[in-house]
Design goal:
Rossmann fold; alpha/beta; single chain; about 350 residues; two-stranded antiparallel ribbon
Length: about 350
């Protein structure tokens, strides 16, 4: 009960320190997917902040993408009542396919030296009440956490951050899961999270709970910054001007660039901080909207991520969820299929370095 009251208090604190908290759906050139999510968020929570407090990680428009069926006392202990009641939904055919993909992802994570990260940051202890699959007694993960663990292992293995680096900007940070993992290894790093207000609020709740001794700088508090390290900066999309002159050691975006409208995408890529950054690390679709299944209303593809100021250091298929089959309607038939476009993984280094 005490934790719930504190969480509710943190939500109210964030809202009080973000002048446009409920207005993100009015952002110009917003893609239809995120416009719908933002409208749903405002409709669902504006008159019921307590419900928002209950659904920080998993809610009806976005989730942790579930975990395979598992019935254990440990899992029940760390699940909400709603999650306990839904456990047996995991016996469906769809979850069988997802289970196969889940264990493929775990093998990839092991090959990439990521199992130690799961041990350091088990999802049930990092996030609290969310769907989890226990690998061992105190080691757990889920589908979205596997993404974060793999990306974190890439950042560590390829030394994209170090104890000497200062500023990392993540564009589209969701609830701060990746930051929650990496903060353990880069304690003095400044973490800049750029996203919609409600996502930043979720991140603030998660990261404040895990790292209460860090400096958490809310949208309207930029003038209160006194330390040049160990900061979490929560930057709403509308406040992007606040970071235009900052030199970033690393800029990342995972999955959301490819969902944007072209004007919104170009809005980011023309920014000064993009061209001045040291390293960029992206995971997005090769083709956002294949002609046979136009997923998003844009014409973005792999060539749009090129930048003449950068050289490619690493390029490959993003392996997590690569073997997952999703049930959806296509050509008049409802069936399990791979996604229409796979995801690329691209790391670029500024030629100045």
């Amino acid at each position: 009960m005490k934790d719930k009251k504190k969480q509710l208090s943190l939500i109210k604190k964030f809202i009080d320190n973000s002048s446009k908290f409920w207005n993100d759906h009015n952002i110009k050139n917003l893609d239809s997917k995120h416009k719908k999510i933002l409208k749903n968020f405002s409709h669902r929570y504006k008159q019921n902040i307590k419900l928002f407090s209950d659904e920080i990680i998993d809610w009806e428009s976005q989730s942790n993408l579930g975990a395979p069926f598992q019935l254990s006392l440990k899992k029940i202990k760390y699940s909400s009542l709603r999650q306990i009641l839904s456990i047996f939904k995991g016996l469906s055919i769809q979850n069988y396919f997802n289970k196969m993909s889940f264990f493929d992802d775990l093998e990839i994570i092991k090959k990439n030296k990521g199992l130690a990260i799961i041990k350091d940051s088990p999802v049930h202890l990092s996030l609290g009440s969310t769907e989890s699959f226990f690998l061992e007694k105190n080691i757990s993960t889920n589908n979205r956490w596997n993404r974060y663990v793999y990306i974190a292992s890439q950042i560590r293995n390829r030394k994209l951050l170090s104890n000497k680096s200062k500023n990392w900007l993540d564009i589209g940070s969701f609830y701060g899961g990746l930051q929650a993992i990496l903060k353990k290894y880069y304690k003095n790093q400044n973490f800049y999270l750029l996203d919609f207000n409600h996502q930043l609020c979720r991140s603030f709740i998660v990261l404040n709970k895990l790292y209460p001794d860090a400096n958490h700088v809310l949208p309207n508090q930029k003038k209160k910054i006194r330390n040049n390290k160990n900061n979490f900066f929560y930057i709403p999309v509308q406040n992007i001007k606040d970071i235009e002159n900052i030199k970033f050691d690393l800029i990342t975006n995972f999955f959301s660039f490819g969902e944007m409208s072209r004007p919104f995408f170009n809005y980011y890529f023309k920014k000064k901080f993009i061209n001045n950054s040291k390293i960029m690390y992206f995971v997005n679709r090769f083709v956002s909207s294949p002609w046979f299944e136009p997923t998003y209303k844009n014409d973005l593809n792999i060539f749009d991520y090129e930048n003449k100021n950068f050289k490619t250091n690493f390029f490959d298929i993003f392996p997590i969820h690569h073997y997952k089959n999703v049930k959806r309607n296509l050509f008049g038939r409802n069936s399990y299929r791979p996604i229409s476009s796979p995801y690329f993984e691209k790391i670029m280094i500024n030629k100045k370095y």
